[in-house]
C-alpha cells in the first residue's frame, strides 16, 4: 500500500519532501520515516517498476559496469547542493527547504487552526493562498486576484514552538544586517578644507578622490585637443568637445608623477584620518 502511495507521488512529479508530507497526512508518522521514504524514492523515482513490484525485472549486468555506474551516481550526488533539513519540535516531521518559507508553511498548515486566506465571494477559507485562488477560479469563475489575507502579522509564536533554531538564526541575520547598515552609514568623512561631509564609494573611495582633484587641486588631468580647455574629468572633456567643437574626440591625458604627488598631498590635507590608506598610485 505504501509503495502505491509513493508511486502516485512519483507520477505526480512531486519533490521528495512534498511527497513525504502528503504521505504523512494519510498514514501515521510511525509507519515510515523520512530517511526510509527517501531511500525508497531514491530507487523508485528512477525506476517505477522497482518501486511498485520490488524488482526491476532486468537481468544482472557485469560487476564492472555496475561499479562504474555506482561511482558516477556517487559523483552526481556529491555535486547536488545540500538543502537544510529541520525537525519540527511539535510533530517530529523533517521539513526541507532553503528558506524559512517552507517551515512557516508547515507550521501554519499542520499546527494552526486559523485559516489565513479567505475568498472575497463566499466564506471559503484555507491556510494556503493558491487553494483559495483555485476555488475562486473553479467555483466563481474569477481568475483575477480574489483573496483576502485575514492575518497580517508574523507567525513568531507558532514558529518558536515548531522551529526555534530557525527563528533564532533569522533574528541573528537581521541583527547582523542592521549592524552592517549602521557601520556603512557611520562611515562618513568631513573634508578639512571645505567642511563637506562625504560617504566613501567602494574600497578605493573614488568619490573622495574626485572631490579632492576637482575642488582643491590646481592641476587638471584632461586637456581638449582643439582649444586647450582643462578639466578634471574625462567625461566633462568629451562633453565640452561635442558641445563646443561639434566632434566627439578623446581628450589628451596629462597625468604624471608630479600631478599624483600634488593629489596625495592635498588628499592628506582634506582627509588626514584615512590618507595613509587611500593614495593615488604613482
TrEMBL record:
GO terms for cellular component: nucleus. Transmembrane segments: none annotated. One of its GO terms (biological process) is positive regulation of transcription by RNA polymerase II. The keyword Repeat applies. PROSITE patterns: ZINC_FINGER_C2H2_1 (PS00028), ZINC_FINGER_C2H2_2 (PS50157). SMART domains: ZnF_C2H2 (SM00355). Residues 222-250 form the C2H2-type domain. Keywords: Metal-binding, Repeat, Zinc, Zinc-finger. It comes from the Eukaryota. One of its GO terms (molecular function) is zinc ion binding. This is C2H2-type domain-containing protein. It comes from Caenorhabditis latens.
Amino acid at each position: 500500500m505504501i509503495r502505491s502511495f509513493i508511486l502516485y507521488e512519483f507520477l505526480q512529479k512531486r519533490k521528495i519532501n512534498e511527497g513525504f508530507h502528503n504521505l504523512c497526512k494519510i498514514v501515521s508518522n510511525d509507519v515510515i520515516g523520512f530517511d526510509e521514504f527517501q531511500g525508497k524514492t531514491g530507487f523508485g523515482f528512477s525506476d517505477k517498476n522497482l518501486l511498485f513490484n520490488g524488482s526491476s525485472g532486468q537481468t544482472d549486468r557485469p560487476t564492472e559496469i555496475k561499479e562504474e555506474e555506482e561511482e558516477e551516481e556517487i559523483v552526481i550526488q556529491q555535486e547536488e547542493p545540500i538543502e537544510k533539513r529541520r525537525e519540527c519540535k511539535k510533530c517530529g516531521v523533517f521539513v526541507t527547504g532553503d528558506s524559512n518559507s517552507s517551515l512557516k508553511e508547515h507550521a501554519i498548515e499542520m499546527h494552526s487552526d486559523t485559516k489565513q486566506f479567505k475568498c472575497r465571494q463566499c466564506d471559503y477559507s484555507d491556510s494556503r493562498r493558491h487553494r483559495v485562488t483555485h476555488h475562486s477560479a473553479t467555483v466563481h469563475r474569477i481568475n483575477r486576484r480574489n483573496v483576502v489575507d485575514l492575518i497580517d502579522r508574523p507567525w513568531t509564536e507558532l514558529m518558536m514552538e515548531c522551529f526555534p533554531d530557525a527563528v533564532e538564526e533569522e533574528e541573528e541575520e537581521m541583527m547582523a544586517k542592521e549592524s552592517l547598515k549602521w557601520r556603512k552609514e557611520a562611515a562618513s568623512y568631513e573634508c578639512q578644507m571645505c567642511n563637506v561631509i562625504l560617504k566613501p564609494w567602494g574600497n578605493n573611495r573614488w568619490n573622495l578622490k574626485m572631490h579632492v582633484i576637482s575642488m582643491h587641486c590646481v592641476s587638471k588631468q584632461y586637456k581638449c585637443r582643439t582649444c586647450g580647455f582643462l578639466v578634471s574629468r574625462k567625461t566633462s572633456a568629451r562633453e565640452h568637445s561635442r558641445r563646443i567643437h561639434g566632434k566627439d574626440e578623446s581628450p589628451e591625458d596629462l597625468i604624471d608623477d608630479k600631478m599624483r604627488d600634488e593629489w596625495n598631498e592635498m588628499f592628506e590635507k582634506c582627509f588626514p584620518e584615512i590618507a595613509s590608506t587611500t593614495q593615488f598610485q604613482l
